[in-house]
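Example (one chain per record):
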Amino acid sequence: MSLESATPVDDGHCFACGQKSEIGLRMRFETLADGSVQSGLTLDQPYQGWRGIAHGGIVAMLLDEAMAYAAGSRGYLGMTGELKMRFRKAVPIGKPLLVRGSVSWQRRGVLGLSAAVALEDGSELATGEGSFVVKGELAPGRRLGE
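Predicted structure:
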């Protein structure tokens, strides 16, 4: 089976959300009333770039993960096809953050998604838009990360 056609398998070791990952963030998302998803977390020093600021690649991962969970909230497993992001302000190390994601549109086997990393007061620090290629469906009643 080629990777291009394979259905993604959540084995619990994802760096962002895997509860079995010894070095990961172990993010947990909740689905909100409007269908979007949200996770709270605080990044520690191992995830910094410049002093006191999260590495840009870590911020991209947070946006990507929120989009994956937004797709999952609609019952789809997918893989990132495109991710475009914008840094609005530096993402601080050691401060509580909210990471949100939502589905913007769906066309055949592609989902359009958006995500944001914000402070607890809602001030957006980074935003992203992307598309995911649908690679399968979640089993009825199953959620990502379970």
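Caption: The two ends are 24 Å apart (CA to CA).
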